[in-house]
Amino acid sequence: MTPPSTAARLAQQAARMDATMTAAVAGPTSAVPAMTPESVVAALEAAVPIPVRGAAWFLEELSAHLATRMHSFPANHVVRQ
Q: Which domain holds residue 38?
């Protein structure tokens, strides 16, 4: 059985990771409508070692970086598949 303090910490980490992933997906999908949330999640999961320590921090930094640069994408940008 997992101690309550450990369960609470793991739940907090999972909630942070979920919120971070949602934020990381929002930028590219709003800037490039041709990108689906699923394709962004797949790209992030390939690029970011999610199970390692610090993955949420990395995604938070990536989201902040993308947020400052999304204006540079033209509205009609086409994503090559």
A: 33-70
